[in-house]
Target: 1-deoxy-D-xylulose 5-phosphate reductoisomerase
Amino acid sequence: MNFFENAAFGGKRPEPLRVAILGASGSIGTQTLDVCRQHSDKLRVVAISVFGSVAKAAAIAREFSVEHVVIVEEQRKGDPAVAQIPDSCDVSFGDDALVDLVARDDVDCVVSAVVGFAGINAGYAALKANKLLVYANKESLVCGGDLLMPLAKPGQLIPVDSEHSAIFQCLVGERRSDIYRVWLTCSGGPFYGMSREELSRVKPADALRHPTWHMGEKITIDSATLMNKGLEVLEAHHLFGVEVDRVNVLVHRQSMVHSMVEFSDGVVKAQLGPSDMRIPIQYALSYPDRWETPSDRVDYWSAPDFSFGKADEEAFGCLALAKEAGRTGGTLPTVMNAANEVANYAFRCGQCGFLDVERIVGHTMELSEPQPVESLQQLHEVDERSREVARSVLSEVGR
Model:
């Protein structure tokens, strides 16, 4: 059995596939629901989780006849919208409920669209429970790849990020030992070509205007700083067993080539398609089959000319910091990610400048002592400690 065969169900795929969507009210979650809506004969949403969007959870539960709902934010127990969730639906609250949800016998597939490090426990539990894990929670893979990847059977963990889905598709039928390098494409974000002086003056509202994708606020800011691309470098490193320095970031403003793989003989495979996240989501849910497209098809006769460029790691230092963390390994990516989550939120709230995100992350990394990854508990402790350090650095930056 090779890396791309699906071992999660002993080679036989259930139909309909019983799906649990974690983070169902977010961007990836709502697009996953759209895919499930279009393929209701093949996909059945049996469980969802939201952080605190109880009214949205209730609406989803009613539409899809969901059997299990988890509200992660426990203080939402008294939310009036809880009463709108059908009586036939089992409702639970808290992080532990999320972990219990993914291990249920009536769940075949877990779509993890939780934002940030918070999704690591559920991802770990899903793999341990032998569920098909459709993964959009890159941060927990960046931090805990050393723990998660050894648990993943061939074809059990399928990426949803458009770039990693592209790499996955380029590698179907290929041997990983033949990979020379990966070309990870990048739109360049809203500030492509700007100097550091110009970047020092940008505001959160500017950074939230991504030129191509419609995403949640956290990932949109990460895309503007290029930290998102740094996280994706580390994600590719873990998913495909490629050294960090063999994952090359390639700026492609048209966002139609979603990534490429170069092989030892010099041949390059590229995956092209519309800029629509429902396509990689659907592929992850349909693999190894392909279903009718959920998107408009591309007219390549009238498509714009493609251009490629190199990412500016001096102007966008977060990319360089993420790669440094990946090269060092151990707990340093967890430190880096925790500091970025603190700094990203602070920038969105107007508590620091755009370039301060990089400064906060860099200084927090300098103050850390990386250790080999040993357990989830260790990573949680490193994450919590690093957030405290980052907040201290933030208070110095804000003076």
User: Anything to note?
Assistant: The chain has a mean pLDDT of 93.
